[in-house]
Design goal:
The protein is an alpha/beta fold. 38% of the residues lie in helices and 23% in strands. It has a single domain, classed as Rossmann fold, CATH 3.40.50.2300.
């Protein structure tokens, strides 16, 4: 009976995880006047999509922007990338995305990374591998506030 209960719990967690995050379509926005290259890695949700679209709109005239799924972060060519925005979720009992963890294990990647994490608790704070994350609950009224914080970090990285 305990094994059956555990199996049901595992299946439910898997269903919740897959329903909360979806795949994004990998795309590239190439700017003729690009002075920089930005990589955005993450998954899809209404909240993250709204923020990602704000980043693309604001930085498209200034930078070439590549968008990839979180699972493709480790295979993306980041050698010529000036800044990386990771948009991940911290869900109870699931830990962190393995792609993000191995990407952040390299010191040269951490220096150019803006880490954005969503969680259920709006007051939650997080730091990983010496990178302080911008955190937020997925509150559709807070996109501009989160975008402003991400843009400030992107500007700091791109101007250094």
């Amino acid at each position: 009976m305990k094994k059956l209960f555990l199996l049901v719990c595992v299946v439910l967690v898997a269903v919740v995880m897959t329903s909360c995050s979806g795949k994004i379509v990998p795309t590239a926005f190439v700017s003729d006047q690009a002075g920089a290259t930005i990589l955005i890695a993450g998954d899809a949700s209404e909240f993250k999509d709204a923020i990602r679209n704000r980043i693309i709109t604001a930085y498209r005239p200034l930078a070439t922007i590549r968008v990839v799924n979180m699972g493709d972060l480790n295979t993306a060519d980041v050698g010529s990338v000036d800044a990386v925005v990771i948009m991940d979720s911290c869900l109870a009992w699931t830990g962190l995305n393995p792609s993000m963890k191995s990407f952040m294990a390299l010191p040269e990647n951490r220096k150019k990374t803006v880490l954005f994490m969503t969680a259920g608790d709006p007051d939650w704070t997080y730091s990983y591998q010496e990178v302080d994350a911008i955190t937020s609950a997925s509150d559709l009224g807070k996109e501009e506030q989160v975008f402003t914080r991400i843009a400030a970090e992107l500007d700091r990285i791109l101007n250094s």
